[in-house]
Give the backbone structure.
Amino acid sequence: MRFEVTHDYPADPARVARMLGDEDYLRDSARASGAVSARHEVAHSEDGAFIVSATRRMPTDTIPHSMRSLVGSTIELKMVQAWGPADAEAGRTATVSIDITGAPARCTARTRLSGDAETTRVRYEGEVSAPIPLVGPAVEKAVVQAVQRVLEAEYAVGLERLGRS
């Protein structure tokens, strides 16, 4: 199942990119997303590219009750965001993958960060696959909704951080 999410931030692309790889932002985003526990690592390279590797344990209370028996009271998400270096206009692209431990579902996305001196747009275009007979489409829909909720929570944290710095 495909999904698209777009967020506009009131800051230039370089500032938004720094925020997306910032330890405090990542910690606050995990908390805002409802994670029961979280850990992350950020690896920066000399050319400005960076990789965020994160693990979040999330409650399953937003998953339809009929599917909770498949995963239990929490699920573990392993996420990797690989951001390339800035291009000539300070934009960037990233690949994103989210694996759900213990469930045959996966999310992949391409992300584009672009903008000007005052505004940055971050656009996620992704797909969720859950190759489970009979219930696969319902699982995919639940995962897409969960991914969208997490992205909205991270966006709110980003807006708050950019507004106070």
In short: The mean pLDDT is 91. The chain has four helices and seven strands. The first strand starts at residue 2 and ends at 9.
